[in-house]
Amino acid sequence: MFKTKSKIALVSTTLIALMILVGCGKTPNPTTTTPNSSATSIDKKTISAAGSTALQPLVKLAADDFMAKNAGVQVNLSGGGSMTGLNNVASGSIEIGNSDVIAPDELKSAGLIDHQVCVAPFLLIVNKDVTVDNLTKAQAADILSGKIVNWKDVGGKDAPISIIGRAASSGTRLNIEKVILDGKKITDAAAAQDSTGNLLTGVAQAPGAIGYIDAAYLKDTVKALKYNGVAYSAEAVISGQYPIYSYEHMYTKGEATGTVKLFLDYIASQEFQDKSVEKAGFIAINKMKK
After folding, report:
1. Rounded to whole angstroms, how far apart are CA atoms 281 and 243?
2. Does the pLDDT of residue 132 top 60, yes or no?
3. pLDDT classification of 288: cutoffs 50, 70, 90
4. How far apart are the first and last CA of the chain?
5. Same domain for 152 and 110?
6. Domain of 92: which CATH number?
7. What phi, psi does 108 have (nearest 5°)?
8. Which of 47, 59, 195, 201 has the fewest CB atoms within 10 Å, i.e. the most exposed one?
């Protein structure tokens, strides 16, 4: 009788132990929080970016790479100038506004978020018939403001100076006015082109012409000038010897998510920065001395 009771007790104890083990190994109920998949995955097949024509060559390189890595995704890219890009992204008509300048306060209040992607150096360029090779800041400012109108006044031959610039919406123009003219305006006598490419062509074709472009557009059809005796190079920008440059921005309205975030993340990635940024005539941000 005692043995029977002992066996029953042993079986009961074993069953209880098994039930406890099964309970401990039970899979927990899933959490009710659902991650926002659109923040890190493709959520739309087509996105649009517009604005700075200075930044456009680099964004195109990134777009081509990104589309090759993400079949079926289309990145539409256009120029129009920095302010055009900023206004369009603020209105919601595009996803990304490319800009050579920081968005003004009235556009920041629309919820624009800044994504710095690289540094763009700018050059003063002249027609190849111009014999001057260097301009000081004062000389460049006097030319661009219309005070000096003949190359002989800065050591060149007796020939009129024609200025070929960009429209008021251009971030390149705003940076040239900021760095060289200390915020003053380029003369109204300057011809205004709607893109950096057209400006380059204009300077190449007009005797005595001067203009300004970002380094990525430089071709042997024109001559780049030294500035304060310093020729442009990436090393000269990084060391602080060459001051004509700007940080390049890609603005979104609100935080970037989905396809837009993935595209911006790719541009900022070490892979793209190392492979393409300097090759395209720009400078990686992490190389700049703060």
Report:
1. 16
2. yes
3. confident
4. 89
5. no
6. 3.40.190.10
7. -60, -35
8. 201
Q: How confident is the model at residue 38 (pLDDT cuts 50, 70, 90)?
A: very low
Q: How many CB atoms lie within 10 A of CB 258?
A: 18
Q: Is the pLDDT of residue 163 over 60?
A: yes
How far does Cα 96 stand from its chain's mean position? Answer: 10
Is 4 part of a structural domain of the chain? no
Angle at 143 between CA 176 and CA 169, to 5 degrees: 35
What pLDDT sits at residue 95? 98
Cα separation, 276 vs 58, in Å, equals 8
Average pLDDT over residues 279-286: 90
Note the pLDDT of residue 134.
98
Task: Say yes or no: 93 and 144 in one domain.
Answer: no
* Domain membership flag for residue 195: yes
Establish if 41 belongs to a structural domain. Answer: no
Assigned token pair, 269: 């990635």
pLDDT of 40 reads 67
Interval 207-259: pLDDT, tens: 999 999 999 899 999 999 999 999 999 999 999 999 999 999 999 999 999 99
- Indicate if 162 and 223 belong to the same structural domain: yes
Residues 100 and 210 in one domain: no
Which residues lie across from 223 on neighbouring strands? 126
3-class SS of residue 263 = helix
Instruction: Confirm whether 54 is domain-assigned.
Output: yes
One domain, residues 264 and 195? no
49-83 burial: b if 16+ Cβ within 10 Å, else e: bbbbbbbbbbbebbbebbeeebeebebebebbbbb
List residues bridging with 209 in a β-sheet. 162
CB-based contact 98:247 (threshold 8 Å): no
Residue position matching structure tokens 């209880």: 16
Tell me how many domains the chain contains: 2
Q: Look up the domain containing 200 and give its range.
A: 121-239
Q: Are strands 74-80 and 46-51 parallel, antiparallel or unpaired?
A: parallel
- CB count within 10 Å of CB 183 equals 8
